[in-house]
Automatic annotation (TrEMBL):
<dbReference type="InterPro" id="IPR000182">
    <property type="entry name" value="GNAT_dom"/>
</dbReference>
<dbReference type="GO" id="GO:0016747">
    <property type="term" value="F:acyltransferase activity, transferring groups other than amino-acyl groups"/>
</dbReference>
<keyword id="KW-0808">Transferase</keyword>
<dbReference type="InterPro" id="IPR016181">
    <property type="entry name" value="Acyl_CoA_acyltransferase"/>
</dbReference>
<protein>
    <submittedName>
        <fullName>GNAT family acetyltransferase</fullName>
    </submittedName>
</protein>
<dbReference type="Pfam" id="PF13302">
    <property type="entry name" value="Acetyltransf_3"/>
</dbReference>
<dbReference type="InterPro" id="IPR051531">
    <property type="entry name" value="N-acetyltransferase"/>
</dbReference>
<feature type="domain" description="N-acetyltransferase">
    <location>
        <begin position="12"/>
        <end position="181"/>
    </location>
</feature>
Amino acid sequence: MDTPVTLQTQRLRLRPWLPADAEPFARMNADPEVMAHYPTRLTRAQSDEQMNRLARHITETGWGLWAVEVIDIEPFIGYCGLWPATFDAPFTPAIEIGWRIARPFWGKSYAFEAAEAAMNFGFETLGLAEIVSFTTPANVRSQRLMERLGMSRNPADDFDHPRLPVGHPMRPHVLYRKSRDLS
C-alpha cells in the first residue's frame, strides 16, 4: 500500500498515530485495570517507544494497530487493528487482531466496532485467509469480544506464550481464529 489507511465506522475513526496521542496513550498504558492482562504496565518511555513502533508499521505497510478516536467527540480512546504475530508458536506466522481501549470508554462497544472494521479490512482488502487473536485465560472480556467477532477457540490450540518466561502466570494463552468466509 502506498499510503496509510484510515478506516471509519459510524462512530469511530481508526487512523495513523499523531504526536498528540502520546500523552493519552501513556496514561492508558499506566492504568492497572487496562493492563491487568499484560505482564506489566508501561513507563512513559516504553509507551512512547511502542507508539513509535506502531506508527512506523502503519507508515511502512499502510495498516496495523491504528489509533482509535470517537468522531467529533474524543480524539483518542485507544488502539485497534492488525499486527503480524511472528513469535515461535504452532500457528505463526499469522496476523493477529488486537485492541486496547482506555477505561473510560469501556462498555460502549467501541472495541467491537473498531475490531469488526479492522477484521473486514483484513479479509476484504488484504485478502487474509485467517485472523487470530489470543489472550490470557483470565481475560474473559476479550474472549467474549473474540466470540462476538465470530472467532472460535479449540482448546487444543492454546499455547504458552514464548515471550514470557516459563512459570510466569500469564504465559498460558488461549487462541481464537476466524477464517475468511468464501461463500
